[in-house]
Amino acid sequence: MNISPKLFLWLIGSGAIITLVVALGALVVYGYRRLGPAVKSPRSNAQRTKRILFILFAFVIVAVLYVEIPLSGARPPKDLKTIAQFLAWKSGAITGRGTFKNGSAAYTVFMGPAGRYLSSGPAAYLFDNHGQFVDWTADMGDFHTVNSNFDLTASVKNLKNE
Questions:
Q1: Which of the listed residues 74, 96, 122 is the one where a domain comes to its end?
Q2: Which of 34, 42, 78, 134 is most buried, by CB atoms within 10 Å?
Q3: What is the domain extent for residue 67?
Q4: Residue from 155, 162, 130 nearest 140 by CA
Q5: What is the pLDDT of residues 69-80, one digit of tens each?
Q6: How many domains does the chain have?
Q7: Are 153 and 140 in contact (CB under 8 A)?
Q8: Cα Rg of the chain (Å, integer)
């Protein structure tokens, strides 16, 4: 089975959140069953079901926002092509710069704020030797790059903080 790197990035980033949402939903359902009224009216079951569905829906919305809000700040715009455009887009949010080699190809790597909460590394953006945008990752400590699947964890050299 071939999963696209973008889908894989989203699934890994949101997997823990979705697990938490399901666990909280199960606790809510269990709590309603366990702590429900001793005398049940016909309408109380329908109301209880609506409340449970509303709470589960609210948890899912919060989980999606928890994943998407920081990711939206790190995700490069679709029209990003050059280092000049990148510098204009990120302006003062660049935290470092380095180089990455993959075989004979050398890339310039810019780092910025991570694209998720509780990240283990910064977001990273790769540019080729002509200054053209190549790829990115929301968290270079945990994720490979989205399109080229480069692992930048220990491979970025000559790091300079900016």
A1: 74
A2: 134
A3: 5-74
A4: 155
A5: 777 788 899 999
A6: 2
A7: yes
A8: 22
For residues 45 and 111, state if they share a domain.
no
Which pLDDT score, from 0 to 100, does residue 13 have?
56
Among residues 42, 74, 106, the one where a domain terminates is 74
CA angle 154, 83, 158 (to 5 degrees): 30
Q: Which residues touch 48 (CB under 8 Å, ≥6 apart)?
A: 32, 36
How does pLDDT run across 96-122, given as a tens digit for each residue? 888 888 888 889 999 988 887 777 888
- The one-letter amino acid code at 66 reads Y
Q: Which amino acid is at 103?
A: G
Which residue, among 85, 151, 105, 89, has the nearest Cα to 124 in the 3D structure?
151
- Least confident among 73-77, 78-82, 126-130, 149-153: 149-153
Tokens matching residue 47 = 């109301």
For residue 149, CA distances in Å to 17, 22, 85, 88, 121 come to: 24, 30, 23, 26, 16
Contact by Cβ (8 Å): 74, 138: yes
- Looking at the structure, tell me whether residues 102 and 53 fall in a common domain: no
